[in-house]
Amino acid sequence: MSMSVDFSNGHKAVLRNNLSTALLTTLLLLTCCLSAQEASQPYVLSLQKAEQACIQSPELGIDMVKEVIADSKLNRNALEEGQAYILLGDIYEMNNQKDLALNRYRQALSILPRSQAANWIALAHYKMGKIFLDQKRSSEASRAFTQCKNLALTPALQINCQEGLADAAALTGNLDQSQQLYADTRGYYQVQSDSLSLARLTAKEAKLYAFRGNLSQAQQSYSNSVQTLSPQFLSRQGYIAFEQVNSVLIDSIKDDREKIALRRFNLDNKSRLKLPADLLLEEQLALANLYKSNGESNALKEVIREARALAQKSQNSAQRANFFQLSSEWNLDQGDLEGAKSDYQNYLAENAKVFQEKEDALNRQLAIIRNQSIVDVAAKDVDLELKERELLESQMWTQRLIIIGLGLLLLAALVSLLLIWRNVKARQKANDLLQLRSLRTQMNPHFIFNALNSVNNFISQSDERAANKFLSDFSKLMRMVLDYSQQDFISFEEEMQLLQLYLKLEHLRFRDKFEYTFTQDEDLNKQIEIPPMLIQPFVENAVWHGLRYKAEKGVLLVDVAAEEDHILVTVQDNGIGRDRSKELKTKNQNQYRSTGLRNAQERIQLINQLYGKSYELSVEDAYEDGDVGTLVQIKIPH
C-alpha cells in the first residue's frame, strides 16, 4: 500500500507533516553547504523563511520564493536563484505536482552551473531522480542519480544518489545490480552507525527477495528491518519506504492467513513505533477487510472495536469515513439498526468533510498553479528589466567609450602640442646657446687684437723690459681667457682675477693716460657663478674709447659692492664721453666698438633668457660738464 502524499486523503495535518519533513532536507542542505558567513546572508535567510512558510501555506511560500527569485535575478546571484527554484520544486512535489516540480528542478539546473556550486547541481539531479522513480521512469531516474553521484561533493549526498541508483535498478528488474549497490551502500551506513538507514536498506532487500519469489526470506528480512526501528528517530515520512515494501509483500502473498499475520505484525510495530493514529487505523481497516472476506466474525468484531478507539483519535476524514462505513455495515449485519444508523450518519458527516477537503485541496492546487504562472510572469518581467538595464548599460558604455576616445584624442593633441612647443623651445634654446657661444668667440679675438697692439707698441718703443713683462702677464691672461672661454659659468672670484690682470696690463701700456682704482667689499660672496668675461668688455671700452683720447690723465674706477639681493659692479671713467668718442673714431675703430660693446649687451640678454637670470645693465654719462665720461652699472643677482 503506497504512502505517497496526496491532498485527496483529506487530511491537512498529514500534508503539513510530510511537507515539513521533506522541506527539512533542503533546509539542512542550505545551511550545511554554505559557510557560517554565507548562511547569514539575506538571501539565505529569505529562503529559510520561505521554507518555513511553505509548511503552513504553500501559496505564501511560493509568493516568498518569487520575491527571492526576483532579487536574485536583479543581483545576478546564480546560486540564490538556483536554490530558490529547487525550493519551488519541493513545494510542487509535496503538493503532488510532479511535472511542475520537474520543470523547476530543470530551471535550477539551467542556472546553477553559472555559480559552479556542484553540490547544489547534484541535489537538483537527486530530486529529479526521486520523481522519476515515483513515476516509474527508471532509465531517466538512473541518469539523474548517476549525474548526482558524479557531481556530489559530500559523502552523504553521494551515498543517497547511490541508493537511488539501486532503487532504479530494482525498478528495471536488474536485481543483481540493485542488490550489489545496496550492499555497497550498507557499508557507509554501518560506518556512520545509521540504524534507520540500515533498516531501510534491509527492507528494500526484502523487496528484492519478493521479486525473486523468495517470500519467506523477504518476510524474514522485512521483519528484521522493522523490528530494528526506534520511535525516537522515525517519522511518518521515514516510514514510507517500509510501507512500500509491505505493499509489495502483501501483493505477493496469496494465502489470506499469511496476509493477516503480516497485517498483525505491521499493526503491532506501528503501535510500538508510536506512528500517527491514521496509519494504525489504515492497518486496522485492511485487517478488518481480510477478516470480513474470510467470514471471521469474532475477529472482525474485535478489530472494529479497536478501530473505533483509533477513529476517535484520527484526524483523517477519509479513514474515519471508511471506518464508519465498515462499522455501519457490521452493525446492520448484526441487526443493530440504531448502531448502524448512528455509524452511517457519522459516515455521511465524515464523507462530507472529505468532499469539502477535496474541494479545498482542488482550490489550493489551482492557487498553486496560478501562483506558478505568476512566478513565471514575474521572472519574465525581471528578465525584461535586466535586458533593458543591460541595453542601457551597453549604450552608456558605448557613450563612455566615445567620451574616453575623444578625451584620449584631445589628450594626444595636447601632448603633441606640448611636444611641439618643447621642441621649438629646445631648438630656440639651442640656437640661443649657439649664438651665445658665437658672441663669446667673437669677443676673444677682439680682446686679443687689442692686447697684441699693446705688445706691438712696446716693441716699437724698444722697451724690451716692459715688453717682456707685458708678454709674461699677457700669456697668463691668455691662459685664463682660453680656459674660461670653454665654460658657460665661472666663479665671481675668477672673473675678478681676470679683470684685475687685464687692468694691470692696460695700465702698463697707457700709464700716462689714466690711473685706476679697483675696490670690492670684503664680505662679498665670491662663489657666485657668472658668465666669463662679463665685465671686461666695459672696462676695455672705458680705456680704449674714453680715456686714451683724453688730453690730460684720466681716472678709471671699478667698484664691486655687495647689495641686499645682488652684486653691483660699477665701471666709471672721466673720459671724453660717448658722443665725443664717436666723432674721433675711424671707420675701422667703429667696427671694433660695435662688435665689443654690442656683443656684451647681447650676451646679457641671452643669458637672462636661457638661464632665467635677471642681470641688469645701464650705460649713461657720468658727469654733466666737460669730459662727461661714462658710467656703467651691472647688477648680478645672488
What does this structure look like?
The protein is an alpha+beta fold and 638 residues long. It has helices at residues 12-32, 36-39, 42-56, 58-74, 78-94, 98-111, 118-134, 138-151, 155-172, 175-192, 195-211, 215-227, 240-252, 256-272, 277-293, 297-313, 317-333, 337-460, 464-485, 492-509, 536-547, 578-584, 587-611, and strands at 490-491, 514-520, 529-530, 554-562, 566-573, 616-621, 630-637. The chain contains 23 helices and seven strands. The strands form two sheets. The protein has a five-stranded mixed beta sheet with strand order 2-4-5-7-6, covered by helices on one side. Helix 19 (464-485) packs antiparallel against helix 20. The chain is rod-shaped. 34% of the residues are buried. The model is unreliable at 1-43 (pLDDT under 50).
Q: How many strands appear in the DSSP assignment?
A: 7
Count the DSSP helices: 23
Q: Give the terminus-to-terminus CA distance.
A: 113 Å
Which architecture of the domain at 461-637 would the CATH scheme give at its second level? 2-Layer Sandwich
Strand content range? 5-15%
Q: Please tell me the overall pLDDT.
A: 79
Q: Which of globular, elongated, flat, extended, rod-shaped describes the shape?
A: rod-shaped
CATH class designation of the domain at 461-637: Alpha Beta
String of helices and strands: HHHHHHHHHHHHHHHHHHHEHEEHEEHHEE
CATH H-tier superfamily of the domain at 461-637: Histidine kinase-like ATPase, C-terminal domain
Strand order of the largest sheet: 2-4-5-7-6
Radius of gyration: 59 Å
Structural class of the secondary elements? alpha+beta
